[in-house]
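Why show two proteins at once? Because comparison is the fastest way to build intuition. When a single record is shown, students tend to memorize it. When two are placed side by side, the eye starts asking what differs. So, the first record is below.
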Amino acid sequence: MAEHSSDTDSDSQGPGGLFSNFRRYFERRFELLVLSIAENVSLIFTHLIQRLTGIIVFSTGLFFAWLALGFFLAEWVESYAFGFFISSLPLILIGYIFMKVSPVFISRRIHGEIMREVISRFDEFREDEDEGAKKKSTES
């Protein structure tokens, strides 16, 4: 530990030492930037996986509920074919609407949500970084 402090003292004594300190500072800042980007990307993927899992579970439940509705309507109208046809009409209608809606509209909404998430994470990182800098300046 004493060896490290003597190295920093000798580095700060000359112009070469100042350059070495700046280089070390920028290397550390770059490492911090890479780590924060990796953290934010992993957080976004974690949220994506969580949402996809929720969608899959919800879709499975919806599938079985629709199947039960088909059987219920089939008994009610006394025809399996007509019961399942009636239960499929809302799905056909929703599918048709999604086919006719411009993909640009949907992709813009998804892109906008992703960008809002990334910007909010970046703002949180900047606030944390600013608080850390304030703490270091008050400790000095």
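Second record. Ask yourself what differs from the first in the token line.
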Amino acid sequence: MDNKIYAIYACSLFGLLTAILFGGLIGTGNGLSTIILVTIGLCFIALFVFSEKIQHEVSQALFIAYVALFVPLIHFLVAAIFGVALGYFLEFFIFIIVPLFLILRARYFEMPAGLLFVLICLLGSVFFAVISTLLGRSQQLAAAWQFIYNWKWFLMLLAGALCSAPNHLPKMVRIFTVLFLMVCLPVLIIEIAFPAQFMALFSSGESISANTLLFGIVKKCRSIFPHSGYLVVYSGVLFTWSLVSFLIKKNKFDLICGAVLFVMMLLAGQRQEFISIVLALSTAYLLRRFGFKLSVLSAIPILSGLLILVAVGWGPFAGVFDQWGLGYSMAVLSERAELTKGGIAIANDYFPLGAGLGTYGGPGAQKFDQTLFEDYGFMQFWWFRKGMFLVDTYWPNIFAEGGYFSALFLLLSFFIILIILAKKVEAVKLESCLIPCVAFVGFVLLLLNTTSSPLITDPRGSIFIWYLVGLALSLKVNLKGKHESSF
């Protein structure tokens, strides 16, 4: 390893440490120190980008990979132990560093055609949302907050698309996987074997509920995370990476890690996330094995069968339809169902536009303006009066604030991403399919959980997935031959 590579690693690590300290200061509300550190951080970025001794693209790619991989886990660990929210740096990274890298690389960055179509559709969604804001009932601060928030997922994707994958990315993911297991596995063992001691150490999390995936034998586990959903997402993405890597390289280390991570997915007990990962992996296999058209045809009976199981309330799916008001019982609707019902009512009342940004179902409305919730009768719900579950599902915010046309354009942008990823999974050579396959599984996981979680815009759980999606969209790979092995 030459001095140039050492310099790249040194700058990347320094940037990561700066990031962690910055996030910690914001989390503790230390304003003066934050201002000082921002100045230091900006000076670091200037030196980092303009230094002639460092290859710009390589150093930026390493820095982005470090942030996407390690900062969220460090955030969860420090938040669980000390209660300090380092995750705020991820917002700084998304809204400051990524646009800065884009400006500095504008002359060299060639936007892939697929990413351009995604951006056009997103701009269409934003256009209708802005018109709805101008003609609706938005308050300025809430609307501005929500407008910026709505760009979050695209900027996370752009972070991956800006730079090619570092050559050391597989090694970095392997190191991260080992670190993840070293941190989370002992805590999981304590959680199962000594629940009282676990709650004393990690009390700031969700209430313990039954694990229907394991038929109630154990409770849902969350390890160091505040919610078991994060555990299944991290375990699932790393499991997918280990599985695909094993199928390519036949490495026993990947097989062992994959087996442990699969058990952790089951222990998390999140049925929707687990089934999303299984469906996505099955689809990726079908794409590699039979091609795009046959995979679509094969998926229809599989999804139909799953829908029937949900409808009849089999096993882990008991009560799902009833909670959404689609069953025959008179059960009380879930919070997500009520939010969706209210969002549809608002979109219908304000058709063809929406009520405007920052009015319903998003962080803008949650923080600054809940009057539309009150106008549509949400004061009757105890969870609303306590400020809970207001952003617990993704789509009601989109079609209520921007209208159906805004939601349609956003859905179209997601559909384009899905098709591009599926085509790359199908077509690339075996040695090049790792990133496209993991990106495809991760994106399907995010997409299928938009009904029950805002994870798709939560960088703590999704930044690495979006980073891989951006890499996959911009990846130039060799196509496989007709008789080449799929896996």
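One difference worth noting in the second protein: Residues 395-427 form the longest helix (33 residues).
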